[in-house]
């Protein structure tokens, strides 16, 4: 309960600060005091409240909030990014404008000739409207034009990127193939294929049709093994059981396997473990199985996600239970939702770890922040001698938007080195 309150409080604080910045750049800097500025301020306030309302409301079943709330979250993100990038050019432009105005302003005034009246008295010089200290009145107008130009550019860019990202996220996942050599893989098992998918994220915005498309794509790969590496759902079995049902149709020569992701622990992990098992996927909870294929053998292991710690249900990831006491001459492939698990896996001599979780960053440039938490964001990498392949995931979380990280299903082909 306290963790949820802490998250909501942090979300409200961050959201409030971002919207305060957006109000300053998009409303205050682009309008003069009056009705238009008031309307803009109220609009920004409503949008600021929409973000936490969506996060909380969708968890409570108010799915009608999902589309407007999550779309605004993406637009907000890109407005923030573009406006921050524009800060330096805007500062330079303001300095140049100020210098130009200063240069144009008169610095001294020549003495006015005295006019002598008919009686010999000196007449007052004609009144003038020019003041030596006055600034030309076009400066505020140009500053306003500059601010409005930046706001329009940011708005068009954010909207365009979001529109492109929606089309990408809702489109079919791309099918990628990667060959990974393993030193201990028997030559007889050369070419063993593992169809890998993660982060399906069935929930308020993706349902049964999404699952059917993924299952059809995997079955076309004619894989030896299917690995679903976590974050399959964002909701309970009662809400999403029907949406997950097509997983029963997954086909492979040596079985389909599943490990939990962090979102399973937000969605009733005990029920989902039973449901996934009922659909024909074997759940590897800190466990391994022997895969006998093509006259050779390898170990396929799986560990619970780190979010399991403290749940008192499935227990935290137990690498010793999943990887200890095995035949060291046999290659082992580990299914672990988060790439960071590779640091522990490497101490057990894991040959290859298959992971998801990162979504490939989902929204560029968010991928650079993901690098601060995970050793591999997308594709093939290596951690202390253990090869790690991270798939982008076939769904999305939060905004139905993907920019720079297309949805993905990967066929991992193992090669003997």
From TrEMBL:
SUPFAM superfamilies noted in UniProt: Metallo-dependent phosphatases
Cofactor: a divalent metal cation
Domain Calcineurin-like phosphoesterase as annotated: residue spans: 192-360
GO function terms (MF aspect): metal ion binding; UDP-2,3-diacylglucosamine hydrolase activity
GO CC entries: membrane
Keywords: Hydrolase, Membrane, Metal-binding, Transmembrane, Transmembrane helix
Pfam family, one: Metallophos
Parts of the chain that traverse the membrane: 6-23, 35-57, 69-92, 145-166
Biased composition, class Low complexity, residue ranges: 117-135
Region (Disordered): 114-139
BP terms from Gene Ontology: lipid A biosynthetic process
Domain of life: Bacteria
Similarity comment text for this entry: Belongs to the metallophosphoesterase superfamily.
UniProt name for this protein: Metallophosphatase
């Amino acid at each position: 309960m306290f963790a949820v309150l802490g998250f909501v409080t942090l979300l409200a604080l961050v959201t409030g600060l971002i919207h305060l910045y957006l109000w300053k750049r998009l409303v205050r800097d682009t309008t003069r005091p009056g009705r238009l500025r008031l309307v803009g301020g109220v609009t920004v306030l409503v949008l600021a409240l929409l973000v936490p309302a969506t996060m909380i409301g969708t968890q409570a079943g108010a799915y009608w909030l999902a589309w407007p709330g999550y779309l605004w979250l993406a637009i907000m993100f890109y407005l923030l990014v573009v406006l921050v990038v524009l800060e330096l050019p805007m500062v330079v432009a303001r300095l140049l404008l100020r210098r130009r105005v200063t240069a144009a302003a008169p610095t001294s005034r020549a003495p006015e000739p005295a006019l002598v009246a008919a009686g010999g008295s000196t007449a007052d010089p004609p009144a003038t409207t020019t003041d030596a200290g006055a600034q030309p009145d076009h400066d505020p107008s140009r500053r306003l034009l500059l601010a409005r130009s930046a706001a329009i550019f940011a708005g068009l860019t954010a909207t365009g990127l979001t529109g492109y990202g929606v089309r990408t996220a809702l489109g079919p996942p791309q099918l990628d193939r990667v060959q990974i050599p393993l030193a201990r893989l028997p030559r007889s098992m050369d070419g063993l294929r593992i169809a890998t998918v993660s982060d399906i994220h069935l929930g308020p915005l993706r349902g049964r049709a999404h699952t059917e498309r993924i299952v059809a794509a995997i079955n076309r790969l004619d894989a030896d093994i299917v690995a679903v590496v976590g974050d399959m759902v964002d909701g309970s079995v009662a809400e999403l059981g029907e949406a997950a049902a097509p997983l029963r149709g997954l086909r492979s020569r040596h079985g389909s396997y599943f490990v939990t992701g962090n979102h399973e622990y937000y969605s009733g992990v005990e029920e989902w473990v039973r449901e996934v098992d009922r659909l024909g996927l074997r759940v590897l909870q800190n466990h391994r199985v022997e895969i006998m294929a093509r006259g050779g053998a390898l170990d396929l292991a799986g560990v619970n996600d780190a979010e399991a710690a403290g749940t008192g249900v499935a227990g935290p990831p137990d690498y010793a239970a999943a990887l200890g006491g095995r035949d060291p001459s046999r290659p082992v492939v580990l299914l672990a939702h988060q790439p960071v698990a590779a640091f522990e896996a490497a101490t057990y001599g894991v040959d290859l770890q298959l992971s998801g979780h990162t979504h490939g960053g989902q929204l560029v440039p968010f991928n650079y922040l993901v690098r601060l938490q995970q050793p591999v964001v997308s594709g093939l990498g290596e951690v202390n001698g253990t090869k790690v392949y991270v798939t982008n995931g076939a769904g999305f979380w939060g905004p139905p938007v993907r920019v720079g990280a297309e949805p993905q299903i990967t066929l991992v082909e193992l090669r003997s080195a």
